[in-house]
Amino acid sequence: MKHARVHAFLERPVGCGWRAGPLALRPVLGWRAAFSGAAADRGSAALGAAIFTPVFIALLALVIAAGRIQIAQGAADAAARDAARTASLADSPDTAQGEARQAAAESLRRSGLACSDIAVAVESDGIDAPVGQAATVTATVSCTVPLDDVALPALPGTKTLKSTMTSVVDQWRAR
Questions:
Q1: Which of 4, 60, 86, 140 could, after both became Cys, cross-link 121 (CB 3.0–4.6 A)?
Q2: What is the C-alpha separation between 78 and 164, in angstroms, rounded?
Q3: CA quadruple 17, 18, 21, 26: dihedral positive or negative?
Q4: Transmembrane region positions (predicted)?
Q5: Is the pTM of this model over 0.85?
Q6: Can you tell me the mean pLDDT for 5-13?
Q7: Residues forming beta bridges with residue 138, ordered by sequence position
Q8: How far apart are CA 149 and CA 114, in angstroms?
Q9: Is 14 helix (H, G, I), strand (E, B) or coil?
Q10: Separation between Cα atoms, residue 65 and residue 146, nearest integer Å
Q11: Contacts with 144 (C-beta within 8 Å, 6 or more apart), sequence order
């Protein structure tokens, strides 16, 4: 009988099996199964969290920075649109320059964008066109936005945004 038990033990598959004993049937694990299960995974959750957390925070900061740049670009587009429209309504090219700068600054202030440097260039030659001739006015707004508060080493400290918009001058208005 003893010989039959040893023979059955040697023929079972490695890593699994059942053995009858005083505590009824209980699983029998080979040495491969013992070290490839839960014991080998001990601490892997902490290691995964230690690797994943900084990567997740960096990606989150990158998404926030990209969103802020996109919002700032929208504000620069709105400022250029306002500047071009205001310049197209001006009576002369000289007043168009000043009014366009004021309109762009007011638009950026309303948007809450904190630009460290604002530049407005207006091509207002269309204002002097004769009555009945189609003409346009183009405004370009450049705005430098600080990104210092987004803590990513790869991001520059500032980002310069540039937007150009064109507005049609009313061809039948008195000039």
A1: 140
A2: 10
A3: positive
A4: 45-66
A5: no
A6: 52
A7: 123, 166
A8: 13
A9: coil
A10: 11
A11: 115, 116, 117, 118, 158, 159, 160, 161
Cβ neighbours of 156 (radius 10 Å): 10
What digits encode the pLDDT tens for the residues 104-135?
A: 999 999 999 888 889 999 998 888 888 888 89
Please check whether residue 99 is in contact with residue 90, taking contact to mean a CB–CB distance below 8 angstroms: yes
Give, in degrees to the nearest 5, the angle at Cα 146 between 141 and 150: 140
Tell me the residue type at 7.
H
DSSP element (H, E) containing 136: strand 135-146
Mean pLDDT lowest for which of 60-64, 83-87, 108-112? 60-64
Burial of 37 (0-12, 13-18, 19+ CB in 10 A): exposed
- Using a 10 angstrom Cβ sphere, with 0-12 exposed, 13-18 middle and 19 or more buried, the burial of residue 135 is middle
Amino acid symbol at 71: I
Q: In the numeric block, which tokens belong to residue 57?
A: 């925070």
Give the length of the chain: 175
User: What are the structure tokens assigned to 5, written together?
Assistant: 């038990």
Residue with tokens 């740049």: 69
